[in-house]
Amino acid sequence: MKRPSTFGLMFLVLFLFACGKQGETVEANKPTEDFEVRVDRFADLEILRYQVPQFEKLSLRQKKFVYFLSQAALSGRDILYDQNYKYNLIIRQTIHTIVEGYKGDRSTEPWKQFMIYAKRVWFSNGIHHHYSTLKIIPQFKKSYLSELINSTDGEFPLKNGEKMGEFIEWLTPTLFDPEIDGKRVNLNPQDDIISTSANNYYQGVTQDEVDMFYSNMKDPDDPEPIWYGLNSRLVKEQEIVEKVWKSGGLYGNAIDQIVMWLGKAKEVAENDAQRKELEILIEYFQTGDLRTWDKYNMAWVKNTKIDIDYINGFIEVYGDPKGIKASYESVVEINDFEATARMKTLSDNGQWFEDNAPIMDIHKRETVRGITYNVVSVAILGGDVSPYSPIGINLPNSDWIRSNYGSKSVSLSNITTAYDEARSGGFVEEFGYTDEEKARLKKYGSFAGKIHTAMHEVLGHASGKLEAGVGTPKETLKSYASTIEEGRADLFGLYYIMDPKLVEMGLVESDEIGKAEYDGYIKNGLMLQLRRLQPGEEIEESHMRNRAYISHWTYEKGRKDNVIEKKVRDKKTYFVVNDYEALRQLFGELLQEVQRIKSQGDYKAAKELVENYGVKVDKKLHEEVLERSKVLNIAPYAGFMNPHYKPVTNENNEITDIVITYSDDFVEQMLYYDKYYSFLPLENN
Predict the structure, then answer these.
(1) Taking the complete model, does pTM exceed 0.85, yes or no?
(2) Which residues contact 420 (CB under 8 A, 6 or more apart)?
(3) Which of 33, 530, 622, 664 is least enclosed, having the fewest CB within 10 Å?
(4) How far apart are CA 386 and CA 359, in angstroms?
(5) Which residues, other chains included, contact 427 with Cβ-Cβ below 8 Å and sequence gap of 6+?
(6) pLDDT digit string, tens, across residues 358-389
(7) Alpha carbon of 100 to those of 104, 148, 155, 159, 172: distances in Å?
């Protein structure tokens, strides 16, 4: 997946889906020019909204398809909360009860601090920050938590026989003590990254035990290996066992809801191929069989003659420090055919890009198969992409499926459009050095980011191959696999965005687009993304790491020739690209090395690259970035409220229409989700 990485895409675009009558709405199915994108602002977050302009053009059958899939997406919400931390569901229910039933004064500063904490937990799908994964510590006092609970009418999630005082005594350090489960994902190679991470993918096992367990399961001679451990929790009881997420198993109650809505969607699928793939997906959720998951992905990636597509399952592994276990996520998307047609030239020329890539011939794919690229409007995202959403997606993740059957890439156009409407040019003015550079970024920055995203997803992730006998990246590169892959895709796009071939293809008008992307990417990787970190933090998130090691590596390697120059003016630091063609060649050199690392499974080289260039933070520069960013008053992260889809029925209870409305109250939406999409027990999931 591609996260925004340039000036033109500085916010990380996120969103949440609504199902219920919530807040004020605009006229159903009618996107308006005066549609208000901004909704709320708190902590380091801003809540936005987006529109779905294609929805009103759909047939009734297609609208029903979108509605059923959106319900399936929301039905897995509990799963992500529990995957993120074992007590998240209890804490969320506690917050919900207080927000609805507190009888005290709601005008005080402590109450405002509590509501900010509540919204942050909803936003992050738990008590750990969605990006840094550090525990979110409440700003109100510990004593106020007791006051809140004791002054609230409602049902709290107490265990059988547990007294309220005992519950408060347990809850207080769980929320306030940073030493208790303080980080959801710990990637420090000096630690046991399993036992020191607070996620709920493992229970009672060590890193060595995890490595041994899955090493023993692997068949080294299998050319089409399943993704061992993708959909289970690994638990040590009398012995180490997997508890699979499936109907009748772990998360079974929520999965049964997903299956029910997928079954309804199957009945209104757009073609027989889509109906068949949904049948396979349902079978996978019912059995937990990873061979069935691979079968589904092969069927899904081949079906391209559709207006509406979707993603649903346990997919991305960023939340697991080992990169094995996947979080639940779902996307429903409506094709934008005009925009897709304009970008089709990328996928049509995939083989040319592969043949001319600056990587070793042994690592090039002889035949680039089945890559497709669509520009889409998001209708719903759920799970791990709600509210935290990518701006582009490329799936499936299995290397052998991508090599043999191809991949699908999408650019989420209405997400980036909503962001563009809300963004500010403040960063360009503050961190740009010359008037020429600022003008270029303002004119081309957003478009350049979209082109880079397209090449990242369509070409970058589809490029390259492993050498014979090399295990999968998660096996060979371990905790560095995700950031190496994201960096590889970024570098592929960075190398080609300055290629004259793009002008020849009619995708860009000149190399000014590539220069704008280089300006923005380098500044973001070296400076701007540091505003997402707290003082003293190092970089751990995979996308931040890949942007950092690419920028720092090219800065260092080009220092002799002054390719990227560090300048100081009025005690402010700037990074200026002096030689764009030389920088392109450096991107190509690093792309070759990163591809080699992946193709050969070179763990040592991956570790050295990431740890030396992608982790450490210059404290003085970090302080400067925070200070300069603070005065701009622009939230580092953004999230979206989602539209609400409501079926209209006749006297026979038949659906005659699906109406879309746009909610504007984040708290009300979250309370609604808590009430109507809670399917898991609060403990012993």
Answers:
(1) no
(2) 8, 446
(3) 33
(4) 36
(5) 7, 10, 528, 629, 632, 634
(6) 999 999 999 988 788 888 999 998 999 998 88
(7) 12, 11, 11, 21, 20
